[in-house]
Amino acid sequence: MKNRIWILLALIMTLAFVPLLAGEAEGKPDDDSFGLNTVYYNGKYYPTLKEALTAVYMSKPAGVAELYCKTGADVGPLTHGHVADDIIIYGNGARVSGGEYDMEIDTYMFDRNTGNQSETGSFLDKDITVKVYDLNGIAAWGQRNTNHTINLYFENCKNMNRIYFTNTANDKGRINVTLSGCSFDANQGSNANTSVYSNAPGDILISDTTFTDIAVGLNINHKSAGVQNITLENCTFTDCALSASTKTYGAPVRIVARLGATTNLTVEGAKFHYSAGNQNVGNGDVLIGDGRYDAPEKQGTVTLQMTDTEADVVVQKAMYYDEAGNVTDPQKAQTTVVSRSDMLIADTDNHFILDCHDQISLVGEKQATCIAEGYTGDRVCSVCGMVVEKGKSIPKTEHNFQNGVCTMCGMAQPSEPAAVPPRTGEGNQRTLWLALLLVSGACLAAAVLARRKGRHQA
Ligand SMILES: [Zn+2]
Ligand SMILES: [Zn+2]
Questions:
Q1: Is the CB of residue 95 less than 8 Å from the CB of residue 135?
Q2: Which pTM value belongs to this model?
Q3: 214-226 residue pLDDT tens
Q4: Which ligand is nearest to the CA of 341?
Q5: Position 26 pLDDT exceeds 90
Q6: Taking a C-beta distance cutoff of 8 angstroms, is the pair 398, 408 a contact?
């Protein structure tokens, strides 16, 4: 009985958590119930996302506010939709159709009673987490004013406009950003200049996301005293950094940190594509450092760890470009051509160490003897430890008999050449089994006889 209760409990837990894990809108009302409205929140329907976000803010939610969009709906234009609470938006394939497309966070003071911007209102007053699923065209924007942490999570949002946060007024507040399965495409309404920009400390993880026709796709200009950890996994950049207007800093991936800031970038399996006739403006696929004429001479720490990625990585120092945007000092830029099989290992002093796995040491090599096989040894990269080529076993050597004894292992020389195992061996064994069978049969017979005899006597 007890077991059944546990099974039931496990079943209930599984059913309860599966929709959460899959990011599905479990509490979504039927599309028919929306009428002309497009967003549902807490028992009411709203014509636009903007109005729903105002309703969330005015409701002073204690927990996570959950918004549901009508499947595939146009949730209206959105400019600076104020967000200051934990919210989840289930987009259901709906799209933001205009304005600046953005949720505004920690930029303006708002009043929770009127839902309006107010001189006597407040900035962000707590750490918040904003999750958005399947909502196309959306953006998040802010100019930080507080120390509160902002966690942003976007999953399967297509043609997102941008994520853009500056920290000029306050450089302490962390921003953590996760993008999974999203896309940015300037041909489909995404901001053509930059897709993801942050100068705050925090962790940024972007996976399975595409960037198309963006001047500076991932644009990091770290201006705090903290650490950014940025990871790109399986992202594709197509025809990015073509724009002449961003010639002095444009790159599909651009990472700059000011003195005192640290940015660690990890790139795994990125692809940089340029369609026929296109090439980037000349700062490589990944640009580290600010080479502009007015950039600070001393800049912060940027490290790059990169695997499974073919890319030109360019490191620039200030005044590589002059004020007119022409190259003045070629010495101030260094290009490293990295093939897919190469690896860049993060290095605090020099950004990275290029490892082409060509510094080889032999590991585990062993000579064969007359009693043990040998091994040619594995060819191992002495920089990263990767096994470049597995070794092979080497067959045993012959014994070296002298005066009836092997001079190497001391084994006595067999007196005569070992014969092929005779067929008689098999026959002999059969005879032995037969004999055993006979003996045991005789014993059994004797025992039975003895018992009978005993019974008669009783
Ligand atoms: Zn290596
Ligand atoms: Zn031997």
A1: yes
A2: 0.82
A3: 999 999 999 999 9
A4: 1
A5: no
A6: no
